[in-house]
Structure formats: C-alpha cells, structure tokens
Amino acid sequence: MHEWSVAEAVIKTVMDWADGRKVKVKRVVLGVPAVSFLDSDLLKEAFDTLKRDSILEDATLVVRFKSPTFHCNSCNRDFSLDDVKDQLDRVRAEFGEDYPMHLIPALAPAFISCPYCGSHDISAKAQDITIDQLEVEGDGGPQGSG
Ligand SMILES: [Zn+2]
C-alpha cells in the first residue's frame, strides 16, 4: 500500500511546516507524477484516515497528476507531452484513445520524436511527488515566547 506511506509523508511534511504556527490546513494540493501509478482515490482515503486529530483534520487532499516530461539527448532540450500533442494525436488515431503512453513514458521514444530537432534519442525525466499548494486558515504569524 504505497499510497499510505505517501499520505503519511505528506501529513508529516505539512505538520513540520506548520509547527509553531496557529493555522488550520484547509487544502493540500499534491503533484503526483502520472508514472507513479498511485491511485488517487486510495491516496485520499489514506489521507482522510491519517489526518484525524491533527491540524489537517479539516483539510481536503487534491491530487493533480503531472504530465511526464522528456529530455532530448540530441539537442539537450526538455519538452512535455503537451509539446508533442500532434504526434500523440497520431498515435491515438492509430492505437486508440486508451493507449497508455501517458502512463508509460518509457514507451514514448518509440512513437514520438523531439519537437525541436526530430531525434528519437529521448528519455523520460524522473519526477517527484510534490506539495504544490497549501491552503491554510488562521494567522500564520510566529508566536511569542511562552
Ligand atoms: Zn532534440
């Protein structure tokens, strides 16, 4: 259950950040690489269970899947799947809408080429899970001694 350890890490990170601040967390926006194969429903379920009795008690978890990005080894430029949309459309036309290339970027070099130089010598870039946005309530100012 990878989702649970991710949810736990997110809650711990937010609590460390909020340590000493008088705030209540209302919303956490999590950026998750599409290739991580994390189930967003499971992730939310884990989050909702683990957040109890913490400053995140009323917080909603929003999961945003990040589009994979690629690096061209030929011209050294980076690009995302959006940059090769027209190529993707052709792949979809051939293989159907369900073709899971967005889930398996390792497959991409076989089907798409660098939008800048046309090379197929491209590799998928590693992506991390990030907390993209925190929405809090209360005054975030530092508390005096006591
Ligand atoms: Zn290139």
Layout: helices, strands, pairs:
Layout: H1 2-18, E1 24-33, H2 40-50, E2 60-66, E3 69-72, E4 78-80, H3 85-95, H4 108-111, E5 122-124, E6 130-137
Parallel strand pairs: 1-2
Antiparallel strand pairs: 1-6, 3-4, 3-5
Helix pairs in contact: 1-2
Bound molecules: zinc ion.
Zinc ion binds next to loops.
Write up what this structure looks like.
The protein is of the alpha+beta class and 146 residues long. The protein has 2 domains: 2-14 and 24-66 and 126-137, hypothetical protein PF0899 fold; 69-124, no CATH class. It is built from 4 helices and 6 strands; from the N terminus they run H-E-H-E-E-E-H-H-E-E. The strands form 2 sheets. A 3-stranded mixed β-sheet has the order 2-1-6, covered by helices on one side. Helix 1 (2-18) packs across helix 2 (40-50). The longest helix has 17 residues, at 2-18. The chain starts with a helix and ends in a 9-residue tail after the last strand. The relative contact order is 0.25. The mean pLDDT is 85. Bound molecules: zinc ion. Zinc ion (ZN) binds at residues 72, 74-75, 77, 114, 116-117, 119.
